[in-house]
Amino acid sequence: MGLDLNGRVAMHSRISSSFILIAGKLFALFILLSVSLFVGCSSDTGQLNTIDPESDPVALATPGVETSTATVVTPLPEPRVVTYEEAETAYKKGRYSEAVELFALYSEQKPENPWGQYMLGLSAFKIGEFDLSEDALKRSLELDPNHQKSLLNLARVFLSTDRADEALGLIEAAREIDRTRPDVYRLEGRALHALGQLTEAEDAYREAIRIDNQDVWSMNNLALVLIDEGYHNLAVPPLARAVELNPNVATFLNNLGMALEHTGQFREAETAYSSALNVDASYGKALANLARIEMVEQLTDVVDVDMLAMAEDFVAEIASWSDEAIAREIPVAIVVQDSSAVFTAQSDSTTTQDQ
What we know:
Helices cover 64% and strands 0% of the residues. Among the domains are: 81-144, Serine Threonine Protein Phosphatase 5, Tetratricopeptide repeat (Alpha Horseshoe), CATH 1.25.40; 219-348, Tetratricopeptide repeat domain (Serine Threonine Protein Phosphatase 5, Tetratricopeptide repeat). The protein is an all-alpha fold. The protein has helices spanning 5-45, 57-61, 84-92, 96-109, 114-126, 130-143, 148-160, 164-177, 182-194, 198-211, 216-228, 232-245, 250-262, 266-279, 284-293, 307-320.
């Protein structure tokens, strides 16, 4: 059967289209097989890093390490171990701020030791950190309710923060533990003086001096009670004795000058104030007292005072006090010119650590 030209062209076109279609399918099958083979080869190795090295500089620096799961661990520093001796050395050398830090660390490491808390409280008291001192001393008493030094030094904190009534309760508890310590009665005297119980305060200071006849701070404080009562002449002997025992305490010298000034011994008072300034040139109360007394003329009818004899008289008075009851003097007030001396407040030495 014969085909015209148009028929032959159409048939040729259909054959060409079929051939192109078959060729295209074969090419697509070839591409698919090639990709499958390539992927299969890649997965067979199992060692290739899947992290893009261009996006992760660590991968470039450490090939073959899966940095996405690696963790760098920095070891914690070992806590500093503080010994009691190390902290106590800082305290004894007067480095109280350092002692606070060291005893705080020591107390964390030895929470069962009341002495660590006690010394933390004592160190804090030395730098005026009364809240910290109170907290530490209370913790010491929680560990040992009969820790007498903590009772006494907590009383000192209360006295320093105008809580004399609370201090008195602690002092009474400390006295029940040991009645032979002079600082128990010295602190009792301070509390009673602050509460206005002057006669009882005198008795407490005398008891402290009876126990320890060289307790210079109780002598000083007894004199201040007598001065508050207006018995300036009776305040001179205990202050003379305190100065004889320890001439390098400016407070004693200033208070002696004050007592002498109020008995009309202006030139003797001037000498005492000058001596206080020789010990501490920046002592403001002595400076004010000296500046004032230099302008006052000496009374002509005043008998000179022998300080050494006054000190010896007080030693004899101490020896006369009995164990049963303190022999009390009947004070005789001497009224003289009031030159408004600047008083120095009562004080006492702080208990140090037992050996």
